[in-house]
């Protein structure tokens, strides 16, 4: 069998290696237009920032090592320029001219290319991307040889990793993002924590604004923003997204949708003997049902293996799973991670769901260096099925999001999380792990033990309900909603008459710092006949959701008489 794979790195090399393990006699050719066919593209920002000191550590394999280990014929600087499905050949441009290569099975793994918006000045030599080893080497050299200022256009995963890397090198870094906050897929209340961490690192964040031009000068470039402000830069990194690199194959008859290759559950395209994997492929989201490319290394690696199975051993081939989009990024001392759908996407698709916010410690609170994990979890209101989860914190975020990703993959309901038997010792977790706590809160919400109100309800709640703040007097004095009544939760049973009088027939909406004390108060109120609900995530979530407006909305008091309005 003659197997030709177009494109290496995650999907292509995974497919080639698996195919060799299944068939020792197959001729396997890998064609890649670049200089490196197997490199750690996710490690590039860490080389720029100096955490990976040796550039060669990024090179996982070379053509020679792949030949020796797997007997693969790997050809770099081979650019595929055409496909003839009827003749079962691809046309390849090389340094020595053009060539035609035949195949029995063809796997397309062309990856994605940078989106280049119609921005005047984008062709400046000071504008760079971060996609290849060569890109990383260039940025490494610039950052260590005199560059002082950098602008990163785009605050997605790669953009933030690049920004942090350059800040580590001592550059003054500005991040510009058109969306309303950094890491646009992240819930806004969690993104606020990431923004604060970026600013702690000395990185300037400009969100909700577009760059309109780049002006080149003799000494530096100037990035012009939509409000007329200007940022001087010795280098500019373009990181506004990617799109499938499929033009050649679409022109050759490969069916595509919005540029992404359409495949079936085994990676087969519309052309016989042609498969496709990776960033260039149209995937169906496991939660939302949306059809879109998913540019992540993990799904590409796994799909490569499964496509090789379908080519060589179709009798054992499993379908390629629909992706959840599980992703993670480090920003300073924080980790942000996500899996499944976010609130905005669920609302847009009209999927009825509940959302819970919680702020548990990553390990036992009595053990040194306990830190909060900020979690947001969504589940379907009809049957409790988990739909998505996100987390931000200093430690333990990866563990919890990975467990939740596994639960979503297995179509678990939120209640099922209560029963997960997770490892526990004080340095690592809690006897009731944060994931178990998600299940407990979710079960309470589903069976009516808990009712929640949300930060996005604040305006309406302030007009129609009594807001009861159950924090301590000192906490209340340090910052509270002006219309709130403060009764610490330990005093509530003795002061229910005060709540009745102040509510005057209105519902009572309870809040505290994180949602724990207000839940206790809610149960007291509910059992005494009040129309009560507790604020999801407490004032921690409220502050983060309000962002810069929090300082204007939350009042402080130097003197306070308990039980009066703030």
Protein architecture, described:
The structure is a single chain. The chain is of the alpha/beta class and 566 residues long. It folds into four domains: 2-34 and 77-111 and 243-312, FAD/NAD(P)-binding domain (3-Layer(bba) Sandwich), CATH 3.50.50; 127-235, FAD/NAD(P)-binding domain (3-Layer(bba) Sandwich), CATH 3.50.50.60; 333-447, FAD/NAD(P)-binding domain (3-Layer(bba) Sandwich), CATH 3.50.50.60; 452-553, Rhodanese-like domain (Oxidized Rhodanese, domain 1, 3-Layer(aba) Sandwich). The strands form ten sheets. Strands 5-2-1-9-22 form a five-stranded parallel beta sheet. It has a five-stranded parallel beta sheet with strand order 11-18-12-13-14, with helices on one face. A five-stranded antiparallel beta sheet has the order 25-26-29-28-27, sandwiched between helices. α1 (9-22) runs parallel beside α8 (297-312) and α6 (188-200) packs across α16. The longest helix is centred in the middle third of the chain and has 16 residues, at 297-312. The chain is globular, with a radius of gyration of 27 Å. The N and C termini lie far apart (78 Å).
């Amino acid at each position: 069998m003659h197997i030709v794979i177009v494109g290496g790195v995650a999907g292509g090399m995974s497919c080639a290696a698996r195919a060799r393990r299944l068939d020792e006699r197959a001729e396997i050719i890998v064609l890649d237009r670049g200089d490196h066919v197997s490199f750690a593209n996710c490690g590039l920002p860490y080389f720029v920032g100096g955490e990976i000191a040796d550039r060669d550590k990024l090179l996982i394999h070379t053509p020679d090592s792949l030949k020796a280990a797997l007997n693969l014929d790997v050809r770099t600087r081979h650019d595929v320029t055409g496909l003839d499905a009827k003749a079962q050949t691809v046309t390849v441009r090389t340094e020595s001219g053009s060539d035609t290569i035949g195949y029995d099975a063809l796997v397309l793994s062309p990856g994605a290319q940078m989106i280049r918006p119609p921005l005047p000045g984008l062709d400046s030599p000071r504008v760079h991307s971060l996609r290849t080893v060569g890109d990383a080497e260039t940025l490494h050299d610039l950052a260590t040889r005199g560059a002082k200022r950098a602008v990163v256009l785009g605050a997605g995963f790669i953009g933030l990793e690049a920004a942090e890397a350059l800040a580590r090198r001592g550059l003054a870094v500005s991040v510009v993002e058109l969306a309303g906050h950094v890491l646009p897929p992240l819930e806004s209340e969690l993104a606020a924590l990431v923004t604060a961490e970026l600013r702690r690192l000395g990185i300037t964040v400009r969100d909700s604004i577009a760059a309109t031009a780049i002006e080149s000068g003799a000494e530096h470039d100037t990035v012009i923003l939509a409000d007329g402000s200007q940022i001087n830069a010795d280098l500019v990194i373009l990181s506004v997204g990617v799109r499938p690199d499929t033009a050649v194959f679409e022109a050759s008859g490969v069916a595509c949708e919005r540029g992404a290759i359409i495949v079936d559950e085994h990676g087969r395209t519309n052309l016989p003997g042609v498969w496709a994997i990776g960033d260039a492929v149209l995937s169906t989201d496991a939660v939302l049902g949306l059809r879109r490319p998913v540019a992540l290394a993990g799904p590409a690696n796994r799909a490569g293996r499964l496509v090789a199975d379908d080519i060589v051993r179709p009798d054992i081939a499993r379908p390629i799973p629909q992706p959840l989009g599980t992703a993670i990024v480090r920003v300073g001392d924080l980790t942000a991670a996500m899996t499944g759908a976010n609130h905005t996407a669920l609302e847009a698709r009209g999927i009825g769901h509940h959302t819970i916010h919680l702020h548990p410690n990553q390990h036992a609170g009595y053990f040194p260096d306990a830190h909060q994990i900020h979690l947001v979890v969504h589940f379907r209101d009809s049957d409790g099925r988990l739909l998505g989860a996100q987390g931000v914190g200093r430690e333990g975020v990866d563990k919890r999001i990975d467990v939740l990703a596994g639960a979503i993959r297995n179509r678990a309901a939120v209640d099922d999380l209560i029963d997960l038997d997770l490892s526990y010792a004080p340095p690592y977790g809690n006897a009731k792990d944060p994931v178990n706590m998600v299940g407990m809160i979710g079960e309470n919400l589903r069976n009516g033990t808990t009712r929640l109100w949300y930060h996005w309800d604040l305006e309406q709640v302030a007009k129609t309900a009594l807001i009861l703040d159950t924090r301590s007097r000192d906490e209340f004095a340090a910052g509270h909603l002006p219309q709130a009544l403060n009764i610490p939760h330990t005093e509530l049973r003795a002061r229910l008459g005060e709540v009745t009088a102040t509510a005057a027939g209105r519902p009572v909406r309870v809040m505290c710092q994180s949602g724990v004390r207000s839940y206790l108060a809610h149960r007291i109120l509910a059992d005494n006949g009040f129309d009560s609900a507790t604020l999801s995530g407490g004032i921690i979530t409220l502050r983060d959701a309000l962002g810069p407006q929090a300082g204007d909305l939350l009042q402080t008091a130097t003197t306070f008489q308990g039980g009066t309005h703030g």
